[in-house]
Amino acid sequence: MQPYELLVGLRYTRAKRRNHFISFISMASMLGIAIGVMALIVVLSVMNGFQKELRARILGVASHVQISGVDGRLSNWQAVARAASADPDVLAAAPYISAQGLLANQQNVQGALIRGVVPELEDQVADIGSHMRRGSLTDLKPGQFGMVLGAELAHAVGARVGEKVVLITPQGQVTPAGILPRIKQFTVVGVFEVGMYEYDAGLALMSLEDAQKLYRLGDEVSGVRLKLKDLFRAPEVARDLTRALPGDLYITDWTRSHANFFRAVQIEKNVMFIILTLIVAVAAFNLVSTLVMAVTDKQPDIAILRTLGATPISIMKIFVVQGSLIGVIGTVIGVVGGILIALNVDVVVPAIERLFRVQFLAKDVYYISELPSDLQLPDVVTVGVMSLLLSLLATLYPSWRASRVNPAEALRYE
Questions:
Q1: Domain boundaries, the chain
Q2: What distance, in Å, lies between the first and last C-alpha atoms of the chain?
């Protein structure tokens, strides 16, 4: 048989009260907890999604670990790549040349990061090949001076696949008329879109050999890019390679070159958790006023229970049950609603954008133009437990007040 404190507490919650204002306050507290929990779960899921998507898009173009010469030039890259690939954590290695240039097409001029690559090896360390909208990385044939552009960069210079663009390099050549920049015409053989504006609007790829000729590097390259089995082990692998590789090399990893992005997302996630927890706290502490009014309303009932032998602890348990039930129902509604919204953000957000004719994440402003979501069980559990604890804490003071009611005083005017 269930304890009578639980039965009475549940009955107080279900019963039709004489004071309807108390019912309204109880419902408001429940809805406040539900909305706060729902918002907290959705926001944390979106922040997790941003972190995951940002990492995937950055590392789809950048490298897990990057090895370069101290002066920006690396000779005998094949030996460096073989030595780095001997590490069990390294999956693949690819050489690259990194330089700056101006792309021109008719009246359109746009600055770009020029990257010379070996298409077959680049596909092993980056995901650009799987994000090609037109053409293929294998169309970058040595000696044919082909170029693959980011989608936004191609749009900015007004170039389509098969058309010519002019690349102007900052390295000059001496002529009788003075020092002039080197100019070379390239054919656009492909367009990629990785979904990150920084790369889509500023990266152009060409054959490694063509880049060596254009920038007069001979057999040298800028460095070697590595892909790891576990990207989170990049700092340890970089330290190991620093000790293992001979020569004067500069080795860096993605956690240092892009740490500001991920640190910013993590800080924002923590701040949003604190801010939205205050919403849940305000709703939970509404229970204090709800239960204080309920205690005042139920003083005759409390007095009768006391005269029938109920202890102060039993009276306290009754109102703890009543307040906790409100918190549990609100938390459950919030958790279910938050999970449903977090799992369907890709449907809910576009519907809101179409309804109000707005765009929350413009491509030219934000790195990610779609609202991602990554629902994680630890976040849901943390939010649910935190909400229940706040609700329980909010019931303690009113319940203690109820246990202190004097039966004689409460029944004097009844």
A1: 4-57+261-411, 63-255
A2: 32
